[in-house]
Amino acid sequence: MKRVSVGVIGFGTIGAGVVKILLKKRGLLKKRSGIDIRLARVCDRDFSRDRGIGKIPRDLQEKDWKRLVSSPDIDIIVELVGGVTIARDIVLSALKNGKIVVTANKALLSEYAREIFSVGIPEVNLFFEAAICGAIPVVKDIQEALIANKIRSLYGIVNGTCNYILSKMFADTLEFDLVLKQAQELGYAEKQPGLDIDGIDSAHKLSLLSLLAFGKYVHPDDIPTEGITNLELIDLLFADEMGYSIKLLAVGNDTRQGLDLRVHPALVPYEHMLSSVEGVFNALYLQTDEAGDMMFYGRGAGRFPTASAVVSDIVDGAKVIASSEGARAKQVIDFSPRLAQVSCRYYVRFTVVDRPGVLAKISGILGRNKISIASVQQTERARAGTNTVPLILITHEALEEKMKKAISEIARLDVVKKEPVVIRIVDL
Amino acid sequence: MKRVSVGVIGFGTIGAGVVKILLKKRGLLKKRSGIDIRLARVCDRDFSRDRGIGKIPRDLQEKDWKRLVSSPDIDIIVELVGGVTIARDIVLSALKNGKIVVTANKALLSEYAREIFSVGIPEVNLFFEAAICGAIPVVKDIQEALIANKIRSLYGIVNGTCNYILSKMFADTLEFDLVLKQAQELGYAEKQPGLDIDGIDSAHKLSLLSLLAFGKYVHPDDIPTEGITNLELIDLLFADEMGYSIKLLAVGNDTRQGLDLRVHPALVPYEHMLSSVEGVFNALYLQTDEAGDMMFYGRGAGRFPTASAVVSDIVDGAKVIASSEGARAKQVIDFSPRLAQVSCRYYVRFTVVDRPGVLAKISGILGRNKISIASVQQTERARAGTNTVPLILITHEALEEKMKKAISEIARLDVVKKEPVVIRIVDL
What is the pLDDT of residues A271-318, one digit of tens each? Predict the structure, then answer.
């Protein structure tokens, strides 16, 4: 039986999960894969802190990652350090030393894709299933199961923190700030939550999804990205009345007009599967030419769900070594794809003075910008202590730039009392 | 570049889809896999009938499957003949001749598993992604992505015909017979619909899912199987009132008490993802030890969705050939696993005479069988022209055999006018 040796660098939450599975399930993995996958060493600066998986043997402990990455008796390097500095050095040196690399580091892969994918070849020496949607095998399914398909569109709920917050706001009718605080106390949100709630983490994942699904790479900084910090409970409630939930979506469309990638909150119709994805769960919805529509759903984070994906990558890497195959193609990636102009329907909520003529002013500006209104809802519930009322519009399909222009004009009207809330409607 | 030659046997709906993709996307597959996958020949008794994909070249046509299966210049045999007679000969001879076999034939694999899996090894020389849930990569995901997991339970909506009928009954408030007729006219149900609506097709798939997920095989005839023919609209409506949809489920639980496999209609709570699976779509919900809960959703049938899965199998088979790997383990299958006693909550609808004392009689019989009642609902809507009313009970968890005994006793009461309707409640 072939034997493959693994070095794990980074003994944090995920690293400890991977180590535990490799130690506990060595026999099971051997039976299922036909390969003996041996944990050779674990690298971290500190082994004294309790990781909740018991002590690991002294002779497995290593403090210098450089020794691991250059060690001739290690076949697979698992990078779970996080960040984009040391992790970058680890991944690049390991690849250059001929190691197979497994990583869960979406920030690193998406920000340094040009550099990394020039030496790292997916399915050959670079595996990163855990970088997108945790336990859900989106990388494998796109690369292998859907190999005969052109993927037309993808819609992902790829950040569990945001989805948890939005689900909770609606379920408990609470405002954003309060739910964020609760989420932080429960460990579902970081103390510095910006990476999640500002949509940046979703943009990292979308950058990688585009690379996989469309073979087209866009740097995360160049993906139009909105987070969920401006969403108010009232929007979730109005959306609900109209038959929609609100989700933070990572959207990708590969059209004849070009590539359209974006991250933003969106109304998703209740009839659609994605609107049923609640709490910390993730999901990826794909529209393909042969297989039709598909959705993959599961846990996008957490120690063991993520470790499950890392270990499946280790096994896939071990199979490559065991079979000494070299027949797989390097993925063709377009690093400068053409970008599309986006148009969609919009939900807009204005906070306006309760006075005649307001709707006429607003609809006038929209009309001049070629945006037509599909429906209007003006309720009578004026907010206590103010003379303002919410005015909800649903538009027909409109170009994004026209919409932006119209909204900024409207925002300057003296009858408009707060920054308008604009949410895209996703028609799947 | 490596070249691999494919022979497709069976030029029906799926076969023609596979042929079309292999011809049309040869370049794409080459680019993505690094292997040139050549359609060498197509076998059928008749090539005159139009398959809707244009003419295929004369030199690709073959009428004798035996010639294909023994041809030294063919590496992969794709069996899409269907049935369990000729298909069995094709699959077994091809495997014995050292070919890699790809098939979508769930009836064959599940009924002749002992014989076929003694020579056919999943992921090595036998691929059958399309046999379960069509385009959805459930085989790959269980075998590869979840390799580090023990799968505890699975809940599948694996028959699109049944799911379509149930969705349609509820959406249009129509009775079973009428919807079945419509489904037959639309091509969603066969003229002889028994295989689908009696749950047999679901049992075939469940037999294979058990083999994959638990490594335990049960012949489909030995899986307790109920179809949807006894479901009435009223049940869907009552279930809805209580917050449930009704789905035909393939259920598998691998417990310490033994293996529990069954196919039956079930109430699924609206909060659960599976209850959102509508129409002809399929889904598989898994509960695992490391990765947590997951669901895979997509098209379970149809020419191109099924062909998409067949082609991904062809590519995986081609990779095996191209890499000349032999390191993969033969799957360990327990052919005589221990079976579990099943207990669950039940929804029961009795059609009873509208007379005092009826509930006392029924609850007395249930009590003597150790079945306790969680809730009772007796409406006043007596059916026109009768003096009967529906009486709905929800039980607490009860053993299946006790339940059967109690129901048959109750059915013999003179106040009970129709066969009771018994539906399991799935508490996920």
Answer: 899 999 999 999 999 999 999 999 999 999 999 999 999 999 999 999
Alpha-carbon separation of residue B152 from A50, B202, B254, B267 (angstroms): 29, 19, 6, 20
Dihedral through CA B177, CA B183, CA B189, CA B195, nearest 10?
-30
Return the ∠ at Cα B186 (arms to B181 and B187), rounded to 5°: 95
- Interface contact A35-B312, CB threshold 8 A: no
Asked if this assembly's ipTM is beyond 0.85, the reply is yes
Give the tokens for residue B162: 């049944």
Predicted confidence (pLDDT) at residue B327 exceeds the cutoff of 50:
no
Chain B positions in Cβ-Cβ contact with residue A146 (cut-off 8 Å) = 137, 308, 312
CB contact under 8 A, A135 and B290: yes
> Is B205 one of the catalytic residues?
yes
d(CA A74, CA A81): 18
Min Cα distance B255 → chain A (Å) is 18
Q: Residue A54, exposed/middle/buried by CB under 10 A (0-12, 13-18, 19+)?
A: exposed
* CA–CA distance, A46 with A62 (Å, rounded to integer): 9
CB contact under 8 A, A291 and B276: no
Quick check: helix, strand or coil at residue A103?
Answer: strand
Q: Identify the closest residue of chain A to B130 by CA–CA distance.
A: A145
SS3 state of residue B78: strand
pLDDT digits (tens, 9 = 90+) for B264-319: 999 898 989 999 999 999 999 999 999 999 999 999 999 999 999 999 999 999 99
Of A16, A311, A277, A282, residue with least CA distance to A134: A282
Element (H, E) at A114: helix A113-116
Q: Using CA atoms, how far apart are residues B144 and A5, in angstroms rounded to an integer?
A: 19
Burial B82-92 (b: 16+ CB within 10 A, else e): beeeebbebbb
Sequence-ordered list of residues with C-beta below 8 angstroms from that of A168, at least 6 positions apart, any chain: A174, A179, A182, A183, A279
CA distances from B315 to A33, A143, A145, A147 (A): 19, 11, 9, 8
Which domains are present in chain B? 2-134+302-323 (3.40.50.720), 143-298 (3.30.360.10), 343-425 (3.30.70.260)
Amino acid, single-letter form, for residue A70 = S
Q: Do B295 and A293 count as a contact with CB atoms less than 8 A apart?
A: no
Nearest to A295 among B31, B141, B298 (CB): B298
Q: Which of A6, A20, A25, A32 best tests the B interface by mutation, with the highest count of B CBs <10 A?
A: A32
Distance of CA B358 to the CA centre of its chain: 39
Instruction: Determine the length of chain A.
Output: 428
Q: How far apart are the C-alpha atoms of A1 and A21, rounded to whole Å? A: 20
Q: Is the pLDDT of residue B47 over 60?
A: yes
Intervals of chain A under pLDDT 70:
324-333, 335, 379-384, 428
Q: How many CB pairs under 8 A join A and B?
A: 203
Question: Packing angle between helix B13-24 and helix B303-323, nearest 10 degrees?
Answer: 60
Residues in chain B: 428
Cβ distance of B144 and A316 shorter than 8 Å: yes
Q: Do A35 and B273 touch (CB under 8 A)?
A: no
Find the CB nearest B328 among A21, A33, A298: A33
Name which of A276, A284, A290 to mutate to probe chain B: the one with the most chain B Cβ atoms within 10 A of its Cβ.
A290
- What's the helix, strand, coil split of chain A in %, to 5? 40, 25, 35
Q: Is A150 exposed, middle or buried (0-12, 13-18, 19+ CB in 10 A)?
A: middle
pLDDT tens profile B358-408:
999 999 999 999 999 999 988 665 656 778 898 989 999 999 899 999 999
Q: How far apart (Å, rounded) are the C-alpha atoms in residues B314 and B337?
A: 32
